[in-house]
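Q: My collaborator sent me two sequences in one message, no labels, and asked for predicted structures for both. Can we handle them in order? The first one she listed is below.
A: Yes, handling them in the order given. First sequence, followed by its structure tokens:
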Amino acid sequence: MCNFITSQDLHLKKHIFSYRSPRQIPLSFRYGGRLICGIPEDYKVTVCDVNPDEHVLERTIVASNDAGLEIRVQYREYADFPATEWLAFITNRGAAPTELISNIRIGGILPMQIEQIGHGNGDTCTPSGYDWHTEPLTKPYTLSPSDGTSCKG
């Protein structure tokens, strides 16, 4: 298998959904009809960093509001690979039901001009699973699983 990673890729990594602050986490959802983007200023926030090995930073951001809504976001950054990972959990820690939560989304707009993108196709349960492809970015392009599971197509 060829290594598609270049020094330019590693340089650009800091611009692709890197952690900057709780307010700038690429998480959005509707809470009681209001659009929430990132962690609101009035939430109590704690941040914990762990380095499971020399090439990985894992950061956990936990935020809660007075009603007991907890947002836990796990961020992973690789020193030797141009990728970041985001995983979010929203939990009611209060005594009463939360307001309606909907339209949960992690992601955003890439903040740079990119001419092409290399990506894997994920597990397709066929011999071509995890093949690599390069696509020109001549129009908007969405990277997401084809059926809502974690890695299909």
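Q: And the one she listed second?
A: Here it is, processed independently of the first:
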Amino acid sequence: MPAVLDRLTGLGYDVFERRGSAYILLEGPLSWRQARRQARRLGGDLTTISGPRENDFITRKFSPLAADPCGLWIGLNAIQTPGKFSWSDGRASGYRNFIKPGSPGYSNGLTLDDPTKPYVHIYFNPDNLGFWKNSNNTYRDVMLGGGIAEFAL
């Protein structure tokens, strides 16, 4: 068992493995910035989602654990430039899964270039299960859930 798995399970985390990565729930209440700090203290970062299969894996594993259906923080953010999203760990991934215009509650879609909403979370409510939304750092319902940390194995 890789040392990172030993350390995380030793700290009491439930660890989910997939393709060279380990994922854990960072329990809230946590803002996006707090969740990222906690992930980095543990040796990882907020998760980078590279494609639809990884998004499905994250949704399947973490939706039952989230304290609120508004979901959990992921590493995508537009802190540097409003509307220009990048992953907190610096990895390149062009995959995006934002809520689509016309989805329940989002008839006009999202305003992705809103400078007050540069942080992204994955939704777990039934109408938008597995889709992403940008929010402010302290969006209450997501803070309750926390975030998803990812570690290289």
